[in-house]
Design brief:
Length: 146
């Protein structure tokens, strides 16, 4: 979405908000996507949204949109809560091979964050893209019905 105009970006997040509003509150909410956004790991007051292990040192415009969306909806950006080497965090690589960034994210409702066990990049997967495969490990414990 980095080249899209503001109206398109706003429409995307409005549509996403509408879908979230129509989702039952008891459902497990996971939001996964290529947001083409970098989020700063050192934003004060947003520690519940962004963990200490993101790779960006500054937030670009689209990143603010994702951060604000997650904050408004009680979500956390899961990638930023797990410590890994940069090669296991950066999800996109420029075709020239010199630039890579963490721009794909797994967001989860704070209520379910303890069920998200890990998020990391698997570089060996041939996915036919300039993005690496992002793997999220998730554990859900269900209660037996009486």
């Amino acid at each position: 979405m980095d080249n899209a105009d503001d109206a398109f970006k706003d429409a995307f997040y409005d549509h996403l908000q509408g879908e979230l509003n129509n989702t039952p509150r008891h459902d497990v909410i996971l939001l996964l996507g290529d947001f083409n956004e970098q989020v700063d790991r050192d934003l004060q007051g947003l520690e519940h949204v962004i963990g200490p292990f993101g790779t960006a040192t500054q937030t670009i415009e689209n990143g603010n949109r994702l951060i604000n969306f997650c904050a408004a909806n009680g979500m956390s950006i899961g990638n930023t809560f797990y410590q890994h080497k940069d090669i296991h965090k950066k999800t996109w690589r420029h075709p020239d091979g010199r630039v890579s960034n963490e721009i794909d994210y797994v967001c989860i409702a704070k209520r379910w964050r303890s069920s998200l066990l890990d998020v990391k990049v698997h570089r060996g997967a041939d996915v036919g893209s300039d993005h690496h495969l992002l793997i999220a490990k998730f554990r859900l414990r269900l209660k037996r019905l009486p």
